[in-house]
Specification:
single chain; alpha+beta; Alpha-Beta Plaits; 4-stranded antiparallel sheet; about 35% helix; globular; YCII-related domain-containing protein; Dimeric_a/b-barrel; YCII
Length: about 90
């Protein structure tokens, strides 16, 4: 899994103008089985997208299509992650 941690680069009202396109993008990744979960940070200075991929290059390629990235509204940091406990420990395993 990869945690894609975003940082907003513009004021929140500018980010919110692209929010519906961003949410549609996330819907598409969820339909493809690539999105585990996503949400805004609190306070809203960015967000976290958890992707069910094993490769950083794939995670970066996927997130490059995010309207927030394409619009210069946010940038993401990729963090590889393997759940060891809790609800996601067996996520995606047969």
């Amino acid at each position: 899994m990869y945690l894609m941690i975003s940082k907003y680069l513009v004021p929140l009202d500018e980010v919110d103008q692209a929010r519906s396109a961003h949410l549609a993008f996330l819907d598409g990744m969820e339909e493809r089985g690539l999105l585990v979960t996503a949400g805004r940070q609190n306070p809203p200075k960015g967000g976290v997208v958890v992707l069910a991929v094993d490769d950083e290059a794939e995670a970066r390629e996927l997130i490059a299509a995010d309207p927030y990235v394409q619009g210069g509204l946010a940038e993401y940091t990729a963090v590889g992650w393997t759940p060891a406990r809790g609800a996601l420990v067996d996520y995606g395993k047969p």
